[in-house]
Amino acid sequence: DAGVIQSPRHEVTEMGQEVTLRCKPISGHDYLFWYRQTMMRGLELLIYFNNNVPIDDSGMPEDRFSAKMPNASFSTLKIQPSEPRDSAVYFCASSPWTVLSGANVLTFGAGSRLTVL
Amino acid sequence: AQKVTQAQTEISVVEKEDVTLDCVYETRDTTYYLFWYKQPPSGELVFLIRRNSFDEQNEISGRYSWNFQKSTSSFNFTITASQVVDSAVYFCALSEPGKTSYDKVIFGPGTSLSVIP
What we know:
- The complex is a heterodimer.
- Helices cover about 0% and strands about 55% of the residues of chain A.
- Chain A is built from no helices and eleven strands.
- In chain A, strands 2, 4, 5, 6, 9, 10 and 11 form a seven-stranded mixed sheet that branches. A four-stranded antiparallel sheet of chain A has the order 1-3-8-7, with no helix packed on it.
- Chain A is globular and about 45 Å long.
- Chain A starts with a strand and ends with a strand.
- By secondary structure, chain B is mainly beta.
- In chain B, the strands form three sheets. In chain B, strands 2, 5, 6, 10, 11 and 12 form a six-stranded mixed sheet that branches.
- The interface of A and B includes residues 31, 43 and 105 of A.
């Protein structure tokens, strides 16, 4: 398996622009997670999906952020409009679900480094 | 609320030295999982180990070992005979299955380990 695929790897944009980050999870993984990593706040869970349905979006910082998962093999995280404080590395991760331990062994993508000028 | 503390922000050791990374967690649950992830300079987070709260046996995998002590709410990670390739940021994490935030994995702030040749 190719693992979790994220694109773009790097994005530089200007304040006010729309940013779309993409993720392809591992085939067969029921859960998909979006995390954000910054020096100040570390790794923060933004939202996660189970079988394409958003389960917990309490970590989404504000209405400028939205995430979708239209099918089992694709998810997007959109920021509109972007602000300099959104600069961070955004990770997508996926996990299978097991009866014994649920879905908590995460396989991460390589991350998308976003810089908003 | 869940919380993971990694008091050591940065550690430097000389190659071949042993090093222990500390992790202290807080949870009100009796059932939970603990994890360690490694983030090398390339940026991608890599799963190392998962332990459930009912299994306090220490684990050894090659040069890596983990010491889980419920009495002190600690899950420490020791690297024996460190190597330059061990240089990375190491994250301890906690998840509590069985709630509305089922499978939500919370990460500690990370410990940056530098192994000097």
